[in-house]
């Protein structure tokens, strides 16, 4: 008998609607700083500006086995960030940050480039 009472109470609790003003508030935490993000997620963030006709910086050196988040921003016209060895070919629309995460595990130098016709922009990702 007690089980039926408990079940009845639980069902009642499940079907009770919560008044709108009693809903829990969703609190968005402030964005993490680069240093916090690195210490929590072990990700190195590298910002790259992209403009005619170069990547700034155009040489990135990262330690092998380290997670890297590239934040690319096209400054003047649309570009791409193409890094075939990682299967990356991202369109970069002007003014929008594009986040790309890579986790290079081979000591190697990779070439990345923009594949827009006539741009002839490239850079190096050096994994040491
Ligand atoms: Cu370009």
The coarse overall form would be elongated
CATH class, named Mainly Beta
Uncertain stretches: none
Structural class: alpha/beta
Helix content: 10-25%
CATH structural fold name = Immunoglobulin-like
With strands numbered from the N-terminus, the spatial order across the biggest sheet is 2-1-4-7
Domains, number: 1
Within CATH, the superfamily carries the name: Cupredoxins -  blue copper proteins
Multimeric state = single chain
Give the bound compounds: copper (II) ion
Q: Tell me the major beta sheet.
A: 4 strands, mixed
Care to describe what's here?
The chain has 128 residues and is α/β, with parallel strands linked by helices. The protein has one domain (34-127): Cupredoxins -  blue copper proteins (Immunoglobulin-like, Sandwich). The chain contains two helices and nine strands; from the N terminus they run H-H-E-E-E-E-E-E-E-E-E. It has helices spanning 2-15, 34-41, and strands spanning 43-51, 54-56, 59-62, 67-74, 79-83, 88-92, 97-102, 108-113, 122-127. The radius of gyration is 24 Å and the shape is elongated. The N and C termini lie far apart (70 Å). The model has no long low-confidence stretch (mean pLDDT 86). Residues 79, 114, 116, 119, 121 line the site of copper (II) ion (CU).
Topology of helices and strands:
Layout lengths: L1 H14 L18 H8 L1 E9 L2 E3 L2 E4 L4 E8 L4 E5 L4 E5 L4 E6 L5 E6 L8 E6 L1
Bound molecules: copper (II) ion.
């Amino acid at each position: 008998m007690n089980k039926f009472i408990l079940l009845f109470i639980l069902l009642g609790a499940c079907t009770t609607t919560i008044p709108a003003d009693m809903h829990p508030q969703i609190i968005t935490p402030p964005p993490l700083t680069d240093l916090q993000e690195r210490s929590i997620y072990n990700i190195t963030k590298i910002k790259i500006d992209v403009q005619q006709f170069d990547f700034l910086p155009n040489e990135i050196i990262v330690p092998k086995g380290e997670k890297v988040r590239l934040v690319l921003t096209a400054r003047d016209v649309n570009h791409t960030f193409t890094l075939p060895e990682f299967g990356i070919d991202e369109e970069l629309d002007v003014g929008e940050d594009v986040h790309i995460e890579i986790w290079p595990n081979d000591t190697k130098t990779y070439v990345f480039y923009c594949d827009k016709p006539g741009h002839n922009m490239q850079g190096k990702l050096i994994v040491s």
